[in-house]
Amino acid sequence: MQERAEQTRRSLLEAAASLFDERGYAGTSISDIATRSGHTSGAIYFHYASKEKLALAVVEGHFATWPPLIERYAGPAATGTPALERLVRLSFAVARAFRDDIVVRAGARLWAERTLIAAPLPPPFVGWIDAVTAMLERAHADGDLAPHLDPERAARTVVCAFFGVHTVSEALDRRRSIEDHLTDLWALLLPSLQARPAAEELLPLARRG
Amino acid sequence: MQERAEQTRRSLLEAAASLFDERGYAGTSISDIATRSGHTSGAIYFHYASKEKLALAVVEGHFATWPPLIERYAGPAATGTPALERLVRLSFAVARAFRDDIVVRAGARLWAERTLIAAPLPPPFVGWIDAVTAMLERAHADGDLAPHLDPERAARTVVCAFFGVHTVSEALDRRRSIEDHLTDLWALLLPSLQARPAAEELLPLARRG
C-alpha cells in the first residue's frame, strides 16, 4: 500500500515535471497534470496539496540529484583519479542529466521562473562553487593546478562558464549539442587550469563518463 | 507636443523596467507602473496598449542597446586596436550596462521569464555569437588568435561563459562584483585564445573601458 502511494507520487511528479519543462509553471494546470499522469486532480491535491508544493517537490528533486553525483566523482572512493579529471567527468555527467532527466530539466526551468512560485527555493550555485573549490584545492595540493591560481576564484569561474553553456545550449537546440559545447569549453579552460597543459589527452577520456 | 509624448513614453518605460527588474513580470501590475511613474493607467494604455506590449518594449530596448556598443568596439572606426583587446573591452562595457542600465537589467529578467509573455521576443545569443565570431576571425587574420582554434566555436564558448558570469553574478550579489568575475573569466580564457599569451598586460587596460 505504502509502495503504491510512492508510485503514485512518483508518477505525478514526473507528469508535472514533463509539463513544467514544456510549458513552464504558469502554463501548466493541475488538470493538465491529472490528464498526463492518468490520476485524478483529487489524487494530486491529496499527495501534494497545491501546484506550488508540486513545483517545489520538482525543484527539490532537481537539487537532490547532485549530492550522489558529487559523492561519486569527488567523494573518498574517487580519489584514485586526479582531481581535474574527476571534475571534467563530473561536468559531463551533470550535462547528461540536464539533457536527459526530466526532473532536472523541469527543476532548472522552474528555478528560472522562481519569481512566480511563492514557496522558497534552495539557493543555487553556492553548493556547486563549494564542491568545485574542494576539487581544485585537491588538484592544487597534488601539484596539478596551475600554481598562480586561487582555487575558489577559479571554481567560481568554472561554475559560471558551465552554467552559461547550459543556458545557451538550451536556447540554441534544447541541449542536443551540450556535450560538444562542453568539450569546447574545457578545451579553452583546461590549458589555463592545468599545471602541465594536456587537455587533448584528458578530454576524450573524460567525456566518455 | 510630440517631444512631451516621447518623454512620457520614456518615463513609463523606465518605471516599468524598474518594477519588472525588482518584481518580475507577474509581480508587476499596470497600477504599480502608474504609481511609480506618476502617470495614470490610462496614459499607459494609451502609449503601450497592454502590460505585454510594455514588456516587449522593454525587451526591445534591451536588445537595441547592443548594436551601437558592438559598432563602437567592432565597427570600422575601432580597427586600430587589436581584435582580442576590443573583445575584452566590449565585454566590460556590456557587463557595466547589465549592472547599471535599468532597461538592460529588466529586459534580461523578462527574457528569462519569456514563457509568461505571449508576445514573441527576439532570439537571444545568435547575434552575439555572430559578432564575436567576426572579431575572432579578425584576430585570426591578424595572427593574434591561437592558430588551432575555430573562430566560431571559440566565439560560442566565449558567449556561453560570459552569459554564465552574468547569471551567477546576478544570483550571488546582484552583479555588484561582475567586473571582478569577468576579470577572473578572461584570466582563464585569454591564455587559450591568444597566439602569444599576455593576459596580464591586456586585462588591466581593457577593464578601464
What is the mean pLDDT of chain A?
A: 90
Helix content class of chain A: over 70%
Gap from first CA to last CA of chain A? 38 Å
Largest interface: A-B, 38 and 39 residues
What would you note in describing this structure?
- Two copies of one chain form a homodimer.
- The first copy, chain A, has 209 residues and is mainly α.
- Chain A has two domains: 2-50, Arc Repressor Mutant, subunit A; 60-207, Tetracycline Repressor, domain 2 (Orthogonal Bundle).
- Helix content of chain A is 74%, strand content 0%.
- Chain A contains eleven helices and no strands.
- The longest helix of chain A has 23 residues, at 151-173.
- Chain A is elongated, with a radius of gyration of 19 Å.
- In chain A, 40% of the residues are buried.
- The mean pLDDT of chain A is 90.
- Chains A and B meet through helix 9 and helix 10 of A and helix 9 and helix 10 of B.
Comma- or semicolon-separated keywords:
transcription (chains A, B); elongated; 209 residues; mainly alpha; 2 domains; homodimer; Tetracycline Repressor, domain 2; Arc Repressor Mutant, subunit A; 11 helices
